[in-house]
Specification:
Length: 319
């Protein structure tokens, strides 16, 4: 059974409401980033992977919870602790300051011995992530996102038309900015899995947008498509792809929600960011990318029409 088989929603007519909603959400996110930059010196809550520090892997002999570790390492002042590998195995990420990783590991070991007793645990691994490596990771993450924008623009300009590529990049930038605003607002730690989630969001958002754009192109190239009102044609294209959009997003969200509640805590932030990204990506493919395509055509015209006019002028000149 095909869901929304006879859907006939007027999405483009609601674009101003969508613009307002997006603008408010973006302003809240940007406000959170500015507040964080003023109060803590950083737009986002970068983790040890980016700022530099130590990563200490600890394994307990008896069942232990992350809450017990946090209480032993300072309560609310404790460094980030995540479960890793086996049930009683954890990773502690902490800043180094002027110390080396061995000094930090000794301090952690001393605190854990005071709380759990000597011999109750084993420090299995200790690593150092330098701030230089962290800065390089930030640059490479930003480069990966910008490079994906460039490739998207080139691909859609060749596969469709340039205006399709510009609209898709606008929608993807919208998704990333809202995601970063959410991370800043709720002070979610930016680690390598978080960057992986953001890149996944870029791919998902682009895929959903391209599905809609492909149907718009098919309808444009159909008989009489170029003469049809653009808003009517885009609305019809969105409605025709709506079953696929709802089913794809719904099944993906079902898996992610299951991971959120039943998956390991170590991937919780990754899962939350993905859930947010799927919702935003689905929203933007309908209410941002498609209206952006209409606005670009209004201001700069239809590239196909311009090519047709030039072709007719050349044909007339040849005669």
């Amino acid at each position: 059974m095909r869901l929304f088989q006879n859907a006939n929603y007027l999405f483009i007519e609601k674009r101003r409401t969508a613009y307002l909603l997006s603008a408010i959400t973006l302003l809240i996110g940007i406000g959170a980033m500015i507040f964080n930059a003023v109060s803590s010196g950083s737009w986002l809550n970068y983790g040890v992977d980016f700022t530099g520090g130590s990563i200490i892997q600890v394994r307990f002999n008896e069942p232990t919870t992350a809450a017990q570790l946090r209480a032993a390492l300072g309560g609310s002042e404790a460094p980030p602790i995540t479960r890793f590998g086996e049930e009683n195995e954890f990773v502690i990420r902490t800043a180094l300051g002027d110390r080396d990783v061995d000094e930090v590991a000794e301090e952690v070991s001393r605190q854990l011995e005071d709380a759990f007793g000597a011999g109750a645990f084993e420090i299995r691994n200790r690593e150092t992530v330098g701030p230089k490596i962290g800065a390089e990771l930030q640059q490479k993450a930003a480069f990966a996102i910008l490079f994906s924008f460039l490739l998207t623009l080139i691909y859609l300009a060749i596969r469709f038309e340039l205006r399709f590529g510009i609209a898709a990049v606008i929608a993807t930038m919208h998704d990333i900015l809202i995601t970063l605003g959410f991370l800043s607002l709720f002070r979610i730690e930016i680690a390598l899995p978080t960057v992986a989630a953001i890149l996944t969001i870029v791919g998902y958002s682009l895929n959903d947008t391209i599905v809609v754009f492909d149907r718009i192109r098919e309808n444009l190239n159909a008989k009489g498509g170029r003469k049809e009102d653009p808003i009517t044609l885009v609305d019809r294209s969105i409605n025709e792809t709506l079953p696929r959009t709802i089913l794809t997003s719904g099944t993906t969200l079902a898996v992610l929600v299951a991971l959120l509640f039943f998956g390991p805590i170590v991937i919780r932030d990754f899962t939350v960011v993905l859930i947010l990204g799927i919702v935003i990506g689905t929203y933007s493919s309908i209410f941002v990318a498609s209206p952006a395509l209409i606005e670009i055509q209004k201001r700069f015209g239809d590239g196909h029409s311009r090519r047709e006019r030039r072709r007719k002028k050349r044909a007339a000149a040849a005669v």
